[in-house]
Amino acid sequence: MIKHYGFIIKAESYSHVRDSTDLNAPEFSTHVVGVSSDDEAIVVAKAMIESGIQVIELCGGFGADSASYIIESLDTNVPIGYVTFSDQETNKLEQLLK
Q1: What is the pLDDT confidence band of residue 97, given thresholds at 50, 70 and 90?
Q2: What is the DSSP code string of 42-86?
Q3: Nearest to residue 82, comparing CAs of 91, 92, 72, 94?
Q4: b/e string for 19-47 if b means 16 or more Cβ within 10 A?
Q5: How far apart are the C-alpha atoms of 33 and 47, rounded to whole Å?
């Protein structure tokens, strides 16, 4: 049963040193950390794994290439995924980013 979840968000101005929070319920905890680069995400993911996080998810801002790089850089049995959007929602996102 998953009880400890990690979520890493990527944005240019985030720093894992100051941009993090915890959401705690009696049977489930989530550790959310903001980073500004893939390499910073690797550092954070390693720390999460060492602290007992059981699953890590990367925000959609990483994209497939960055997610693959991060996953390949970590030698772990902890599952790491990343958020994706359907084609329809990707179109909306692209309009927003213009």
Answers
A1: confident
A2: HHHHHHHHHTT--EEEE-GGGHHHHHHHHHHH---SS-EEE----
A3: 72
A4: ebeeeeeeeeebbbbbbeebebbbebbee
A5: 11
Contact assessment for residue 38 and residue 66, using Cβ atoms and an 8 Å cutoff: yes
Q: What is the pLDDT confidence band of residue 56, given thresholds at 50, 70 and 90? A: very high
Query: Cα–Cα distance between 89 and 43 in angstroms, integer?
Result: 30
Q: What is the pTM of this model?
A: 0.91
Counted domains in the chain: 1
Q: For 37-52, what is the mean pLDDT? A: 98
Domain of residue 61, residue span: 4-97
- Reference 61, options 83, 46, 79, 43; nearest CA is 83
Confidence of residue 54 (pLDDT cuts 50, 70, 90): very high
